[in-house]
Amino acid sequence: MSLKVLYFASLKEYLDKGEDSVDLPPNVKTVAELKDFLGAHDPKLKEAFATMPRLRFAVNQEMATGSSAVKDGDEVAIFPPVTGG
């Protein structure tokens, strides 16, 4: 399974990249499992997840929770909470 992962705002700056293409094993089926997989395979992401615990996720431009499903071809966005004014 292959996904496109997008990074935004301070997370994008911290990682010094805006996106990744990720090939996932078949056992990764949710946003929480994706987060665990990314952290296990990228030390910088693991550190970001630890220091930015309030990150938000969206799957195909729809807000997602840890139990939200991910499937082949999805686009997953990861971003810190933001406020507007």
How would you sum up this structure, described in words?
This protein is α+β, with helices and mostly antiparallel strands. The chain contains 3 helices and 5 strands. The chain has helices spanning 9-15, 31-41, 43-51, and strands at 2-7, 19-23, 56-59, 62-64, 75-79. It has a 5-stranded mixed β-sheet. β3 (56-59) and β4 form a beta hairpin. α2 packs across α3.
Tell me the number of helical segments per DSSP (H or I, 4 or more residues long).
3
How many strand units? Answer: 5
In spatial order, strands of the major sheet run 2-1-5-3-4
Mean pLDDT: 94
Beta-strand percentage?
Answer: 25-35%
Low-pLDDT stretches are none
Outline type: globular
Q: Rg to the nearest angstrom?
A: 12 Å
Largest sheet: 5 strands, mixed
Instruction: Report how far apart the termini are.
Output: 39 Å
Helices and strands: which structural class?
A: alpha+beta
Q: State the order of secondary-structure elements, H for helix, E for strand.
A: EHEHHEEE
Assign a percent range to the helix content. 25-40%
Describe the secondary structure blueprint for this structure:
Blueprint (H helix, E strand, L loop, with lengths): L1 E6 L1 H7 L3 E5 L7 H11 L1 H9 L4 E4 L2 E3 L10 E5 L6
Parallel strand pairs: 1-5
Antiparallel strand pairs: 1-2, 3-4, 3-5
Helix pairs in contact: 2-3
Compact overview of the structure:
By secondary structure, the chain is α+β, with helices and mostly antiparallel strands. The protein has helices at residues 9-15, 31-41, 43-51, and strands at 2-7, 19-23, 56-59, 62-64, 75-79.
